[in-house]
């Protein structure tokens, strides 16, 4: 019996037809959508994990997952316009806007620097197209760079006496660039 001249044949399966390597199913598309009550535990987990990994200078977390979940359910969702980044049923990040304040923007640590934060920020800007403010710890260099990249500017500084972490913070503001008015006689 002759072996077929193909790299797919093996000694145990002479003449077997070539088979393609198995491929993984494509990942569901990333969506930005309004948060719903069933997202609450995942939002709380993202909040806790992100703060722990990205802000090691913070005092040790005193709140449990259940306490943060209750805060998201009773304060964040009812008082803020909250959107989540989801891939299928899996939540990757969230942003919450209260009035003109971007009150929260957190990502799972494993999806940082993938563009998801920019998508959440874009959703917040669409919700408040006239401008947004936010507070960021002065020590949070990564967040400060992210917001500066997206056009936020420092408008105030404080000593941290007004936040529960007692850490100095900056207030940043984004205002959309005004559209230049064409001069008379120009097309």
UniProtKB/TrEMBL annotation:
Keyword Ribonucleoprotein in annotation: no
InterPro entries found in the cross-reference section: Acyl_CoA_acyltransferase (IPR016181), Bact_Acetyltransf (IPR050832), GNAT_dom (IPR000182)
Renumbered residue ranges of the record's region Disordered: 1-25
Domain N-acetyltransferase: 30-173
GO MF terms held by the record: acyltransferase activity, transferring groups other than amino-acyl groups
Pfam families, per the entry: Acetyltransf_7
Pro residues bias locations: 15-25
Low complexity bias: start-end ranges: 1-14
UniProtKB keywords: Acyltransferase, Transferase
Name of the protein: GNAT family N-acetyltransferase
Native source species: Streptomyces auratus AGR0001
